[in-house]
Amino acid sequence: MLANPRVWAGQMNTRAWEMKDQKPRAYKLNDLVPAGELAKALGVSVDTVLEWRRKGGLPGYRVGKRVFFLEGEVMDWIQENLRIQGNQA
């Protein structure tokens, strides 16, 4: 199950510097999160999640007609996008 996005926000500051020296993660099939579950966790529509994937580079994987996401990659993408938005302010 996908972690609460509010918890993600609290973890993001510590994860940014921790990830620099980490080796690539090994993922399992049950780490895949369907687009609908990700949208619900982030409080946005499925269309928004799919648009982020199409236009904004949100990493996702198509399996047949469905799209899945890896929680760790989503968190990394959110962190990077928060950093970019912070530099534009």
Radius of gyration: 13 Å
Main beta sheet strand tally, sense and closure: 3 strands, antiparallel
CATH architecture of the domain at 30-89: Orthogonal Bundle
What CATH first level of the domain at 30-89 would be assigned? Mainly Alpha
The averaged pLDDT comes out at 75
Decide which structural class fits the backbone. Answer: alpha+beta
Assembly form of the protein = single chain
According to DSSP, the number of beta strands is: 3
Distance between the termini: 34 Å
Helix content: 55-70%
Question: Which runs of at least 5 residues are low in confidence (pLDDT < 50)?
Answer: 4-19
* Strand arrangement in the largest pleated sheet: 1-3-2
Q: Which fold does the CATH topology of the domain at 30-89 refer to? A: Multidrug-efflux Transporter Regulator, Chain: A, Domain 2
| Helical stretch tally | 4
What does it look like?
The chain is an alpha+beta fold. The protein has a domain of 60 residues: Multidrug-efflux Transporter Regulator, Chain: A, Domain 2 (Orthogonal Bundle), CATH 1.10.1660. Helix content is 57%, strand content 12%. It has four helices and three strands. A three-stranded antiparallel beta sheet has the order 1-3-2. Helix 2 crosses helix 3. About 18% of the residues have low confidence.
